[in-house]
Amino acid sequence: MHFDAETVTHRGGLSKLRSLTKVNPRLAPNLAKTMLGGPRDHAVVEAFNAHAADKGFEFTSTWASNNIPFVTPLLRDFAAKRPAGEAIRYMEIGAYEGRNLAFMDWLLPDRLAVTVIDPWFDEALNPEEKYHAVEPRFRRNMDKCGFKSLSTHKGFSTYVLPQMLERGEQFDLIYVDGSHTALAVLIDLCFCASLLSVGGMMVLDDYWHDISEIGGPGVKQAVDQFHAAFGRYFEIAAVYRQVALVKTSEIPR
Q1: Three-state secondary structure call for residue 60
Q2: Are 148 and 183 spatial neighbours (Cβ–Cβ below 8 Å)?
Q3: For the stretch 17-39, what's the b/e string if a residue is b when 16 or more beta carbons lie within 10 angstroms of its beta carbon?
Q4: pLDDT, tens digit, for every residue of 134-146?
Q5: How far apart are CA 26 and CA 23, in angstroms?
Q6: Distance (Å, whole) CA 30 – CA 38
Q7: How would DSSP label each residue in 195-234?
Q8: Among the four 48, 88, 235, 240, which has the fewest Cβ within 10 Å?
Q9: Looking at residue 131, what is its pLDDT?
C-alpha cells in the first residue's frame, strides 16, 4: 500500500525525528551502525533510472528510489551467497505499479522466481478513480521484466498468506510493504516468518512510520513487537528506513 503526495508530505522531519527517538533498543545498535558507516550505493539510483527510461516503464512515483542506496548492498551480498544458477524464490507484498519489482529484476537479472500479493483496487480502501489504472500499469510494466517466473495474487495479504502456508510454500527473499496499520503488518510478519526459508531474508519497509495512514499504531510498533517475540530466530542485517532480518532457525509452531 502507498499513500498520496499529501500524506507523504505530512511525514516530515518532525515525524521522522519522533520515530527515531522511539527506536527499539534492540535495533538501535544496528541503526547506528547503518547511519554511521553502513554500505550505501548512491550511484545505483541514477543507473536504474536510466534503465527504466530506456525500457519505457510507466512509473508515476519514485518512492522506491529512497531505499535503493541502502538495500542494494544487502541484496547483492544476499544473492552472492546463493547457489549460482538456482532461482531465488522472491515474494513482494504491496507491489503497486511494480517499480520495486523492476528494480529487483534489473539488480538480479534472471535470478528471481517472483510471487506478488496486492489488492491494487478496493472500493473501501482506495475508492478514487486514479487507482483503477494502477493494476493495468503494473501488468504492462511486468511485461518488460525478465523474471524466471511471475505469479500474482490479487487480494489482501492477511487472507492470501495463510493459504500459502497451508500449501507449504517457501521463499528465500521477502519484501513486506503492504498495509501500514500495526495489526495488518504484524499478521504479515508472522506469516512471512514461517514462509521464509532458513537462511532467507525479509526486508520490512517503512520502519519509521509509527502512525498509520488511517490513524492508530503503524509499522514501527508491529516490527518492534515482532522482533521482541521472535528476534532470537533472526539475525539483524541492517536497520534504517527498512529493517532487514535473516532467518537463522525455524520458529516452533
Answers
A1: coil
A2: no
A3: eebeeebbeebeebbeebeeebe
A4: 999 999 999 999 9
A5: 8
A6: 9
A7: HEEEEEEEEE--TT--B-TTSSB-HHHHHHHHHHHHGGGE
A8: 235
A9: 79
